[in-house]
From TrEMBL:
Domain Histidine kinase residues, every copy: 30-253
SMART domains: HisKA
Enzyme Commission (EC) number: 2.7.13.3
Gene3D superfamilies: 1.10.287.130, Histidine kinase-like ATPase, C-terminal domain
Keyword RNA-binding: no
Catalysed reactions, as listed in the record: ATP + protein L-histidine = ADP + protein N-phospho-L-histidine
Domain of life: Bacteria
Stored InterPro entries: HATPase_C_sf, HATPase_dom, His_kinase_dom, HisK_dim/P_dom, HisK_dim/P_sf
Keyword field: Kinase, Phosphoprotein, Transferase
Class of enzymatic activity (EC top level): transferase
UniProt GO MF annotations: kinase activity
Protein name: histidine kinase
C-alpha cells in the first residue's frame, strides 16, 4: 500500500521522537558519568580531612559529615533518577530477523526526502551493490539510524547540495556510508527548513570533544552497539569540507 502524506508525517514525527529520546538518554549518561568522578573525589578528600582534623572539634566533624552525606545523596540521585530513566535505551531491545538491505536504503532515502530533502532541494546519489546479501538485525532500528544519518547530512548541507549514500558488503558485515560537503552554518540558519529540534542542532554546531560525536547522533551509536557493530562519526569538518558518517552491522549468511 502506498504511503499517504499523513502516513509520512506521522512517521517523521515518530522518527524525530526516537532521536530526541536517545539524545536525552545520552545526555543523562554524560551527566551520570561526568558527575561521579568529582563526587568520588570530594568523598575521598572528606575522609582525608577527617583524619587530619581534631576529633574534639565537633563543628568540623559535623561539616565533614555533612559533606559526605551530601555526596552520598547525589550519588543516590544519579542511581535512582538518571540511571533508571535511561534504562530504556541503555538495554536496547532489538528483534533480529534476516532482511535484504536494498529496500531499506530506498525507504530511508524516501523518508528523508519527504521530511526535509525536498524542502532543501537536496539530491541523493545511492550506490547499492549489496545484491542478495542478507542482514541479521532489527530492520526498523537500522532504518531509524540510516534516516538520522541522512537527515543530519541534509541539516548540515547547503540548499541544492548532493548527498552520497552507499552500502558495501564484506564477508562479515554490511557498511552504510553517508558522505556530503559540510555546511555547518546551515544547522542554525532559521531561514532554512529543519526537521531536527533546535537544541540538537545548536549542540551539533559546537566543537565536539575528542572521541565524542554530536548528541543528536546517539541513536545511531546505540543501534550499532546493540547489533555488535560500530558507528563512526568524526567531528563535523569546516565549511565546504567533506563529511562522512558510517554504520557497520554484522552480516548473516545468504
Amino acid at each position: 500500500m502506498a504511503s499517504t502524506p499523513q502516513n509520512r508525517t506521522e512517521r517523521t514525527a515518530r522518527l524525530c521522537a526516537e532521536v530526541a529520546l536517545f539524545m536525552r538518554d545520552h545526555v543523562l549518561s554524560r551527566v551520570s558519568h561526568d558527575l561521579r568522578s568529582p563526587l568520588n573525589a570530594i568523598h575521598s578528600w572528606a575522609y582525608v580531612l577527617e583524619r587530619k582534623i581534631d576529633n574534639a572539634d565537633a563543628a568540623a566533624q559535623r561539616a565533614l559529615g555533612g559533606i559526605r552525606t551530601g555526596v552520598e545523596q547525589q550519588v543516590k540521585l544519579l542511581e535512582t533518577l538518571v540511571d533508571t530513566t535511561r534504562a530504556q535505551t541503555r538495554k536496547l531491545h532489538i528483534e533480529r530477523e534476516p532482511f535484504a538491505p536494498a529496500a531499506l536504503l530506498a525507504d530511508a532515502v524516501d523518508d528523508v526526502r519527504v521530511s526535509l530533502g525536498d524542502a532543501r532541494g537536496v539530491s541523493f546519489e545511492v550506490q547499492d551493490p549489496t545484491g542478495a546479501a542478507m542482514l541479521d538485525g532489527d530492520r526498523e532500528r537500522i532504518g531509524q539510524a540510516l534516516w538520522l544519518m541522512l537527515a543530519f547530512a541534509v541539516e548540515t548541507s547547503a540548499p541544492g547540495a548532493s548527498i552520497a549514500f552507499a552500502a558495501n558488503v564484506t564477508v562479515t558485515a554490511a557498511q552504510f556510508e553517508v558522505k556530503w560537503r559540510a555546511t555547518p552554518r546551515a544547522l542554525t540558519d532559521e531561514t532554512l527548513a529543519h526537521v531536527l529540534e533546535p537544541f540538537a542542532r545548536t549542540q551539533a554546531s559546537e566543537p565536539q570533544e575528542a572521541g565524542r560525536h554530536a548528541w543528536v547522533l546517539a541513536l545511531c551509536q546505540r543501534v550499532a552497539e546493540a547489533h555488535g557493530g560500530r558507528f563512526e562519526a568524526p567531528a563535523l569538518p569546516g565549511e565546504g569540507e567533506d563529511a562522512v558518517l558510517v554504520l557497520n552491522v554484522p552480516l548473516s549468511g545468504v
